[in-house]
Amino acid sequence: MDFLKFEDLSFSSAFSEPKEDIHLEYKTATWKLPKNFWETVSSFANTDGGLIVLGVKEDKDNHKYEITGVDDPIVVRQEIFNGNSNSECLSSPVIHDSDVKLVDCFDRTIIEVLVHPEQYNKRPLEAHGIAYVRTDDGDRKATEEQLKYFLVEHQQEIDTRLLRNFDLEDINSLDLDEYVTVLRKNTNTRYKDLESLAFDLGVFRRDRTSNGKDRLLTEGGLLFFGKYKVKSKMLV
Predict the structure, then answer these.
(1) Per-residue confidence band for 232, with pLDDT thresholds at 50, 70 and 90
(2) How far is residue 225 from each of residues 156, 176, 182, 184, measured CA to CA in Å?
(3) How much is the average pLDDT of 70-87?
(4) Checking CA distances to 83, which of 18, 113, 175, 230 falls within 20 to 30 Å?
(5) pTM above the 0.85 mark?
(6) H or E segment at 144?
(7) What is the DSSP letter of 90?
């Protein structure tokens, strides 16, 4: 999901497309954030990500939307980041500065907020102590079965935490080459280069909290293929 260009979507402040769906949510917001804003943040982060547009009113009877705008966008934007950093509001911050965009459209200002899917080992993201998931065009409280699934995901992804300030130079190429030799002998698998191999093996993963396509070293990758070895000492 990416930001929408509302100035290119319609010739008036009323429109019917794009409509709300599993990745898009419109909300009215005049002087402050709507109460259910954080529920949608949680549901998008726990599912497949999405875009929240503040300053758009839905006409459910006619299946249309109208750009009503945000009266004080600076205050509302600040409220977003205050809540984002408040653990009582959101269990962990997921919104970055580049994820919030103010757009002037038809003499009004709307706010677009990108929410990226949370990493598996950080789910579920809770809003006011409750985890939500996105289904169709609505936010739903996560069921007991879904919460159990999140727990299983967390256990399976225990070594996939992404490490910043690390790159391919921190990987011991000799260790990786040795592993490749064994891998090819057993599977007849061929890889183009060291970088693609490292990504395919999960040594590096895409940082989905970023708007770019940065690949970061995983904790497990550093553990198995890192140049730096931890010396253990026995206490007698």
Answers:
(1) very low
(2) 19, 6, 15, 17
(3) 96
(4) 18
(5) no
(6) helix 144-156
(7) B
